[in-house]
Design a protein that fits this description.
The chain is α/β, with parallel strands linked by helices. Helix content is 31%, strand content 16%. It has three domains: 35 residues, no CATH class; 347 residues, Aldolase class I (TIM Barrel); 32 residues, no CATH class.
């Protein structure tokens, strides 16, 4: 009979051998108590977010009279958005292309950048990735074949103002036309930033809610805009409460870029309110790994700790995130923040977006460079939102290369060929 390494007294009721490791376990417990062992999780107090060194330097240089408490206030950030050429030139050295675009554009997508997000921009390099996404250039005035103001045909699938019903069981509820920061490639640039759409009206909300209430097939409601999280807690809760009173609405989703451009908005009071309306999901617009600051990571921590599943949506943009290394870094950062990469979008052919769009083969190349080379959870689905209202169509590299008798021929991520027995298969017929 083999002698046991531990006596019966050394086992706890769950059968864990404690005694041999008691000292080590106690030491670990002490470390856990006295240290934050996860460097990606920051303080979640409502006293403010941990500021990145670059953000502190920016605030002290360009907003010297602003206290840290004011900077941390999301409403202060909105009130002090950079919206004019003069305000931009006080901070960055505009290129001639940028200056002309801002001063000559009277009817296009307005400029608006939160001071926080402005702190992430390179003040001297107009080619920097984040800067190109929010500072306009004259390339926006060039219209290419196939572009339109409403490339997805949302207005053709709108039964009532502010609501898009394209798929059988879900609707897109455009609750506001206001964003804290405007992305230059926005697929809804026809409506966002306009005074007539910026302030949500109760009459439009009521009509949209009445439509959802009278359409039993709708089980999933996506709140978007504009950015729903720029609304007050009270207005957001009003919508969530009304939707939760509709028996057939099972899932509510919120589409937002706030954690990236206005992380100060993700207060504990907001997350406490949101968690009352589960099942609630949030899809975050993520563009580049430089957005994953300590402030953004803390915002994600607060949302995830409130039990909200988080997914990311990323638009593939030429010269900004259209290489494997950048995309992998972004996806890895999102995973660390407990955000599941969800969609990689081919850039919609919005009017004036030609300088942002890549060939489709570039997106396939990136997916091929992720699949097998990193965690499966970190590989988003690459899609084209079909022009004219066709919906999202997934695109994948060609991993099925043929058949050999009763075998399906498959190519894996390294390029090797494998046979899978599939005698009754008809995938290639």
């Amino acid at each position: 009979m083999t002698e046991s390494l531990c006596s019966s007294e050394d086992f706890d009721p769950l059968g864990t051998q404690v005694a041999p490791f008691k000292q080590e376990v106690n030491q670990t417990a002490s470390k856990i108590k006295n240290n934050n062992i996860n460097p990606f999780i920051k303080s979640t107090t409502d006293h403010g977010l941990p500021e990145s060194p670059g953000t502190i330097d920016f605030r002290q240089r360009f907003f010297p009279r602003t206290t840290p408490a004011q900077w941390q206030n999301w409403k202060w950030q909105l009130r002090n958005r950079i919206t004019t050429a003069a305000a931009l030139e006080r901070i960055i050295r505009l290129s001639e292309e940028e200056r002309k675009a801002i001063r000559n554009d009277r009817h296009g997508l307005p400029v608006a950048i939160t001071p926080y997000y402005m702190s992430l921009l390179n003040l001297h390099n107009p080619s920097q990735a984040l800067r190109r996404t929010v500072v306009p250039t004259t390339a926006e005035h060039l219209h290419s074949p196939g572009e339109s103001d409403d490339p997805l045909g949302e207005e053709n699938n709108s039964p009532v103002p502010g609501l898009v019903h394209r798929y059988p069981d879900r609707v897109l509820f455009l609750v506001t036309g206001y964003c804290s920061t405007y992305c230059r490639y926005c697929t809804r640039s026809r409506m966002v930033g306009r005074k007539e759409n910026a302030e949500p009206t109760m009459s439009r909300w009521t009509k949209a809610l009445d439509y959802i209430r009278s359409t039993p097939s709708v089980r999933d409601v996506l709140l978007s805009g504009g950015d729903p999280l720029t609304l007050s807690d009270q207005m957001i809760e009003h919508l969530l409460f009304k939707l939760r009173q509709i028996p057939h609405v099972e899932i509510i989703r919120i589409g937002t870029k706030v954690p990236m451009v206005l992380p100060q908005r993700i207060t504990l009071s907001l997350t406490r309110m949101l968690r009352r309306y589960h099942p609630l999901w949030i899809s975050v617009h993520a563009t580049h790994p430089d957005e994953l600051t300590s402030e953004a990571m803390t915002a994600y921590t607060r949302l995830a700790d409130a039990g909200i599943p988080l997914g990311s949506q990323t638009v593939l943009l030429s010269g900004i995130n259209d290489d494997i290394a950048t995309m992998r870094k972004l996806m890895h950062g999102l995973m660390r923040a407990r955000v599941r990469p969800y969609y990689l979008y081919q850039c919609d052919p919005i009017t004036g977006s030609g300088h942002f769009r890549t060939p489709v083969k570039k997106g396939l190349e990136i997916i091929r460079g992720l699949r097998g080379y990193t965690t499966g959870y970190a590989v988003p689905t690459y899609v084209i939102d079909a022009p004219g209202g066709g919906g999202k169509i997934p695109l994948t590299p060609d991993y099925v290369i043929g058949s050999d008798g009763d075998n399906l021929l498959l190519k894996n991520y390294t390029g090797n060929t494998y046979r899978y027995p599939d005698p009754d298969g008809s995938i290639l017929s």
